[in-house]
Design a protein that fits this description.
Number of helices of chain A: 19
Distance between the termini of chain A: 46 Å
Oligomer: heterodimer
Number of domains of chain A: 1
Strand content of chain A: under 5%
Radius of gyration of chain A: 22 Å
Strand order of the largest sheet of chain B: 1-2-3
Helix content of chain A: over 70%
Distance between the termini of chain B: 27 Å
Number of strands of chain A: 0
Number of strands of chain B: 3
Largest sheet of chain A: none
Order of helices and strands of chain B: EHHEE
Shape of chain B: elongated
């Protein structure tokens, strides 16, 4: 790698930019077709609800060409991105075939009415299927190339932007940033001080704190270089984040349902208190399903919107700022004078999760598509021709991600975290849960309850 | 003389992901958040590409004409 690595190289070799390129190209094509009287529906297909094998067979018989074209298009786009990012494209393509067909099986199971009656959503099924295969089957070798949790979830988030009106981001975004900031700062200091009290190294304390307070593994990655953390410290922080994130996928929706929180409020709580983007989307989808079945007030969209506003807009954007603050602390107080480096404010931009720009871009395009239309026109014109195909594609890409979480979370491969790190992180989790609940369900409840287009 | 040009600096995403257990479960070495950070094989820690230290050893780059 060159010291003067070009912007173009960064643009083509980082999956954040590729998620923006792929996501915005798809949304742009969908918009162009919609604007000229067409739709992306012909290629964006996903299993419809079914109740008998005859139903299912009829669906696949009718849509087989659409599925084939959709598969080839996604294989081509993701393989192109993988090749450009320097991955082994043959291994990626082989792994992608596995990911696609396991996702298809997951979506088919999730569309079965017998399964839907239990509010079991495809995201949860994908996670379980992936975890069973990942932990029980022999090593998948080079197929791992295609198990890209982050790449798929980022692309899905850009596509999600098309269903999240920009007006909603402008209206609720500032509240999301305020709420997320309060919880992030408090959680950071609770974990950090507890870890120091338990006599953990301050660099490990900082990694655990950012992992619990900001955005999980991504925050750990962003901060590790800034404070020159040791490799095993990074592994301990990652183990803590991964295990707690998976636990929260089940805990948060069940707790929120037990208290009958409206879907927007539940989504906001999940966005405030989950640690990883992909894990949180599973929890938010699960909670949205409770709203669909009438178990809680609100709509499935409200759970996803509130989650996205809190987690992506409210928390993820702070990564670069935390990296600069902690690198400044490390360089001025932790490192020996001869090892100190100048901290550049450019780190904020370098580490900014660029896929968020794609989310905003897609949201803007979708808002333009529905400009000056009544709600009735939106439902009869925009939704079927523009929103539904993009939602179908998002469901696919999210399923790739959820499946990949299971496939890559090999419990035997995780580094042991140790009792002190566990206690420090768990203390932060408890404070985060309580504070997140108070802010979502009491202080800012009226915002999250009334999220609407 | 920075880590980016040092033989001990590991900055290939696939190598980083192999060296840190669990990284790919909910993260990625190909993400913007990593920027151009890498792992120092001497100090066993994560460093910025523009870091420097006394253990610097120049990275040998192959001549394009060599096999």
């Amino acid at each position: 790698m060159s010291e003067t690595r070009s912007s173009w190289s960064e643009f083509t070799r980082q999956e954040d930019w590729w998620s923006v390129i792929l996501g915005l190209c798809i949304v742009g094509i969908a918009y162009a077709l919609f604007a000229t009287g067409g739709s992306l529906n012909w290629i964006a297909v996903a299993p419809d609800p079914w109740s008998s094998t005859a139903d299912l067979a009829a669906q696949f018989s009718r849509d087989s060409i659409r599925y084939l074209l959709e598969f080839l298009a996604m294989l081509g786009l993701f393989s192109l991105a993988a090749w450009t990012m320097g991955q082994n494209v043959r291994a990626f393509a082989a792994g992608f075939v596995v990911v696609y067909f396991l996702s298809l099986a997951t979506l088919v199971i999730g569309a079965w009415d017998a399964v839907q009656s239990y509010d079991v959503e495809p995201p949860l099924i994908a996670l379980v299927v992936g975890a069973l295969i990942g932990n029980l089957a022999p090593s998948s070798g080079r197929l791992n190339e295609a198990f890209r949790v982050e790449f798929y979830i980022k692309t899905g988030i850009v596509l999600l932007g098309a269903t999240l009106p920009i007006t909603l981001i402008i209206w609720a975004g500032p509240i999301a940033i305020v709420q997320a900031s309060i919880v992030s700062v408090v959680t950071f200091f609770v974990i950090y001080r507890t870890a120091l009290f338990l006599e953990l190294d301050r660099k490990l304390a900082a990694l655990l704190a950012v992992g619990g307070a900001i955005c999980g593994v991504s925050a750990v990655i962003a901060i590790a270089g800034a404070i020159r953390a040791r490799r095993e410290q990074m592994s301990i922080a990652i183990t803590s984040v991964v295990l707690w994130s998976i636990a929260m996928i089940l805990v948060l929706p069940l707790l929120a349902r037990a208290w009958y929180l409206p879907s927007g409020v539940g989504g906001a709580w999940i966005g405030t208190s989950e640690f990883a983007d992909a894990a949180g989307f599973i929890a938010a989808h699960t909670y949205g399903a409770f709203a669909r079945s009438g178990a809680v007030e609100g709509t499935p969209d409200q759970a996803i919107w509130a989650y996205t506003l809190l987690k992506v807009v409210g928390r993820d954007i702070w990564i670069g700022i935390w990296a600069v603050i902690l690198s400044f602390v490390a360089m001025t107080r932790w490192e020996e004078p001869e090892a100190r480096q100048r901290v550049s404010m450019m780190e904020i931009w370098r580490r900014f999760p660029k896929f968020i720009l794609g989310l905003f871009g897609a949201s803007l395009l979708a808002t333009l598509a529905s400009e000056n239309l009544s709600f009735a026109d939106f439902d009869t014109v925009v939704r079927p021709a523009f929103i539904v195909p993009l939602t179908n594609l998002r469901v696919w890409v999210f399923t790739f991600s959820f499946l990949s979480i299971g496939l890559t979370t090999r419990l035997r491969g995780l580094a042991p975290a140790g009792g002190a790190a566990f206690i420090a992180f768990a203390t932060g989790v408890v404070v985060n849960l309580v504070l997140g609940f108070v802010l979502s369900a009491v202080v800012f409840q009226s915002y999250w309850m009334h999220l609407t287009r | 003389m920075t880590c980016a040009r040092c033989a001990h600096f590991i900055d290939q995403p696939a190598q980083i992901e192999a060296l840190i257990p669990g990284l790919t479960a909910m993260g990625s070495a190909r993400a913007s958040v990593r920027s151009d950070d890498g792992i120092c094989a001497v100090h066993e820690c994560v460093v910025w590409a523009r870091d420097l230290c006394g253990e610097f050893s120049p990275r040998i780059t192959k001549d394009p004409g060599q096999p």
